[in-house]
Every structure is written in structure tokens, then in C-alpha cells.
Specification:
five-stranded antiparallel beta sheet; single chain; mainly beta
């Protein structure tokens, strides 16, 4: 490959995994998917976008039935869609492009997708317009792709800049936003329908790059980068906040990175016991490396971060997926002396 672009991952409780990424192997840049079965190997790469233009944004989800949904967006935001795979990867089922319906006329800036164990999927997209409106498309197994606008009280008041989405097994979802003012909001989706947004951090510094995870009990964990204004820091650290599904409340955010250098591209996931694993890229006196920290649900604390890899070249764009027994896989992009290529590593589960 002449270049590797954004990479995303998903894993289910059976240990089946799916990874999507963008490559510059051909013209235009393609969205790619590979699938992993426990005890087996990764499948051949499949192209799954239909835009005919360069792809810059991909996302993927897999449920415990082996159903995979992948989303894509082209470089101009003029085409975007969701593709379904039945687990065999024999023939992808292209569900359709968001832009095909008149309700959406603006160019998209991001698209995310998730699927529950009833095979119902939820995709949300952000659009570049003056009001910052977000749209959600809900896909049922037996229905056609439908478009529903999320507007008014269901959104923060400022235009949206970034977001992430996660769908749990029991038809609940969580989306986190960063708005144009740099504030972090969360929106809970009981029964895949949006609730009211909640501001989950109150620092004066600008936040970015939010990610969210859900466990099987409906608890959530959000991570993002933000300068620690309380300590007058001028570099971004990784912060985390936990959502308690039983009380429907968020914890006070805590800083989980410790180095005095800018953190980038955090990600987070849960195991079945409710422990969380976070990863990010950050410099440790040299090129950016990949770091990980673990949240222990029994003590309600984060462990100190550790380095995941020890290569001499800069690493970037880490993503983590954890299965039901706590086996965690991290994937990231790193220069090998010739090209940017994907790497992976397994983390030791919490006892």
C-alpha cells in the first residue's frame, strides 16, 4: 500500500473481530474491511464503499450474531453510506447512501454506526452547516434505511464539531459530542431513540477527539483530550468520565494520562465485568508511542498508563477492542521505514 488512512475496529463476546481502514493502494482511495474468527486468521480484504471517490472516514460495528455494519464517507462529504455484512463476508449488502434522501442536503463531516444483538443498527452523521444539525438513520433488519433528524433539545446549542457512537447489545446507545465551543456532551439513546444531551465536563479549555464505550449493563465510559486548565497546562491530556446506567448520571472527569506532552486519538472499550481499557498516542521524549490505561470497576480507579509498543518510529491512531473475557486487542498505524502500516498488540486482562 502507498498509504494507510483512518483505522477502526470492533469485536463481539465470541471473539469475532472486524477492522476497517482506508488505503491508497488504488485510485480512488478505498474503504477496506477484514474479519477475524477465533482460532483462525484474518480474511482477505474487501472493498465496501460505493462512492467512486476518495474515502476519508470509516467506522464498523459487530454484534454477537456476527452481523457487521460498516459506514463510509468520501473526501468531499457528498457521498456517505452504510454497508451490512452477514458474517460470511460473501457479498456485502449496500443499504444506501444518506445523501439519497432530500432531508439531508449539506455535506457530511463524520459518520458513525453501531448494531445491537437484535440486528437493529443505528448510524449518526454530522453535517457542515450553520446550525450544526446532526442526523440519525435507524436501520432495522427487515426494513429499509430510514432517516430521522435529531434536532432542537436533543442537541447541544452550539454547532457540533466531533462525535462518536456506541450501540450496546440491548438496544441502547450512547453518543458523545464536542461542540464548536470545545465542550463535551453526551446523549443517551434508550431503545435507539435520542434523549437529552448532558454536559459532562466543565473546564475552560477546549476539548477534542471524543470516544465512548458501553458495557453489557448499560454503563458507559467517555474519553477525550483536553488541556488541564486547573493546573495551567498547555498540552492536551486524556480525560475520562463514567456513565452509571442505573442512576443515568456521569462521574466527574479524571485525567488518566500522566506525561507532560500532547496526547492524541484516545479510545476506550469495556470487558464483560465492566472494566474499561483506554489507549492513546503520546510522546515519551521521542516519537509518539501508544499508551494504555485500565479502569478497575471494583475499586472505581484507573491504573497508571503503560506503553504498548517500543518501536522507534512514530505511532498514531490507536484503537482498542475488548471481548467478554477481557482479551484486549489494540491496533494502530506506524511507519515501518517505507510505508505507514497497521500494527496490533494484545493487552493482559484484569484478574
Amino acid at each position: 500500500y502507498s498509504g494507510i488512512g483512518p483505522i477502526e475496529r470492533a469485536v463481539n463476546s465470541r471473539g469475532e473481530a472486524a477492522v476497517v481502514w482506508v488505503t491508497s493502494f488504488s485510485t480512488p482511495d478505498n474503504a477496506n474491511l477484514s474479519y477475524f474468527l477465533p482460532g483462525g486468521s484474518w480474511t482477505r480484504t474487501l472493498y465496501f464503499d460505493t462512492s467512486g471517490a476518495d474515502i476519508v472516514d470509516v467506522a464498523v460495528a459487530i454484534n454477537d450474531n456476527g452481523i457487521i455494519y460498516a459506514s463510509w464517507r468520501n473526501a468531499t462529504g457528498s457521498a456517505h453510506g452504510v454497508t451490512k455484512f452477514d458474517g460470511t463476508l460473501a457479498t456485502p449488502d449496500v443499504l444506501g447512501a444518506f445523501g439519497a434522501t432530500p432531508i439531508i442536503t449539506d455535506t457530511s463531516i463524520s459518520i458513525k454506526v453501531g448494531v445491537d444483538d437484535q440486528n437493529d443498527a443505528l448510524a449518526t452523521a454530522l453535517y457542515k452547516n450553520e446550525t450544526g444539525i446532526s442526523f440519525a438513520a435507524i436501520q432495522n433488519e427487515s426494513a429499509t434505511l430510514g432517516i430521522t433528524a435529531i434536532t432542537g433539545s436533543q442537541l447541544p446549542t452550539a454547532p457540533l464539531a466531533e462525535h462518536d457512537l456506541r450501540v450496546g447489545p440491548n438496544s441502547i446507545a450512547m453518543e458523545v459530542f464536542v461542540d464548536g465551543l470545545g465542550d463535551v456532551y453526551a446523549n443517551f439513546f434508550p431503545n435507539l431513540a435520542p434523549d437529552l444531551p448532558v454536559l459532562i465536563e466543565t473546564q475552560s479549555s477546549i476539548a477534542g477527539e471524543p470516544r465512548v464505550a458501553l458495557d453489557d449493563s448499560g454503563n458507559g465510559m467517555a474519553v477525550w483530550i483536553q488541556a488541564d486548565a486547573a493546573n495551567s497546562e498547555f498540552f492536551e491530556s486524556v480525560f475520562a468520565a463514567r456513565f452509571d446506567g442505573s442512576t443515568v448520571t456521569w462521574s466527574v472527569p479524571v485525567k488518566i494520562s500522566t506525561l507532560a506532552a500532547a496526547a492524541k486519538m484516545p479510545d476506550v472499550d469495556f470487558d464483560a465485568a465492566g472494566n474499561a481499557y483506554a489507549v492513546w498516542a503520546q510522546s515519551d521524549t521521542g516519537p509518539d508511542s501508544i499508551f494504555s490505561a485500565r479502569y478497575d470497576v471494583s475499586s472505581d480507579t484507573w491504573e497508571p498508563p503503560v506503553s504498548v509498543e517500543s518501536e522507534t518510529q512514530a505511532a498514531k491512531e490507536p484503537r482498542i477492542a475488548v471481548n467478554g473475557v477481557g482479551d484486549a486487542m489494540v491496533v494502530w498505524i506506524q511507519f515501518n521505514g517505507v510505508n505507514d502500516v497497521p500494527y496490533s498488540a494484545n493487552l493482559v486482562p484484569l484478574p
